[in-house]
Amino acid sequence: MNPMAWIGPVARSVDEALDRLLPPDDGPAATLARAMRYAVFAGGKRLRPALVVAACEACGGRTEDVAGPAAAVEMIHTYSLIHDDLPAMDDDDLRRGRPTVHRAFGEAEAILAGDALLTLAFEVLATEPPGAGLAGRRAAAVAAAARGAGPAGMVGGQMADVEAEHRLPDASGIEWIHRRKTGALLASAARIGAIHAGAPPEVEEALARYGDEMGLAFQIADDVLDRTSTAEEMGKTPGKDRRAGKATYPARIGLEASRIEAQRHAARAIEELDRAGLGGGPLRALARFAAARDR
Predict the structure, then answer these.
(1) Residue 75 burial by CB count (10 A; 0-12/13-18/19+): exposed, middle or buried?
(2) pLDDT for 260-269, tens place per residue?
(3) How far is it, in rounded angstroms, from Cα 83 to Cα 122?
(4) For a pLDDT cut of 70, what percent of the chain falls above it?
(5) What class does CATH assign to 3-292?
């Protein structure tokens, strides 16, 4: 299966949900809404919401039931990119092939747009899909997203990433950072899909482990691309990890060993699917894509 061909229709349905859920770009908060929409509709891969949908489908759930939650996960991811690009963080001028939000709108506007996306994401997770009978699933999805995005997950990993600059940890330390700053939100995305499909706890846990391994493969591949790709191919400034002294696999073990390591973690993600009886379809293809992507 070509994962990008499968993601295309899913991305369109997620974009429709995002357009419905984001505030209109007029009225008293027009600048905030424009900045939010500028960031969200910048042409990302939609990998995280696709993972919500793929996990839900693999567990027998309906795609239409997770359009809102999938959009919420993309809002969380986009908020993190806006804040990552800020001068106090990675200080980047380019994201998804165009100026970063703080370059296009201003630094204060970018901070507020990120804050608004994160807050709106949790409103959506708490209210969609609607219905009193689904309240338990919505609450579980909120908790899963909070764990993946918060101090025990993405934000904690980002803090460790900042602290590790110019002080390269050993391989286990780099793995710890990557599992949190990237793997945790992907694990939450897979878990949210399973939750809304009503999957049993053991399947939910297997999908979370799958997302964690896939996230590590994805981040290692991203580290490789930072050293080998171009701005046109990546849509962001290459070479910044090395210049900033970031803790990456290529810095610790080299490019070829990093490629092998990414493939190893993708294989471990697929093993989790096989053990849970979910081995076929988009989930397997997405794991392979995470390790082998070229942009």
Answers:
(1) buried
(2) 999 999 999 9
(3) 18
(4) 96
(5) mainly alpha
Rounded Cα distance, 57 and 54, in Å? 5
Q: Phi and psi for 41 in degrees, rounded to 5? A: -100, 45
Residues ≥6 apart with Cβ < 8 Å to 247:
161, 164, 165, 167, 168, 169, 173, 174, 177
CA atoms within 13 A on the CB side of 214: 31
Burial class (CB in 10 A: 0-12, 13-18, 19+), 179: buried
Phi, psi of 89 (to 5 degrees): -110, -105
> What is the rounded distance in angstroms from the CA atom of residue 243 to the CA atom of residue 78?
24
Query: Which residues contact residue 88 at a Cβ distance below 8 angstroms, ignoring those fewer than 6 apart?
Result: none
> What's the CA gap between 167 and 161, in Å, rounded?
10
Dist CA 54 CA 52 (whole Å):
6
State the amino acid at position 256 in one-letter form.
Answer: E
* pLDDT tens, position by position, 99-114: 999 999 999 999 999 9
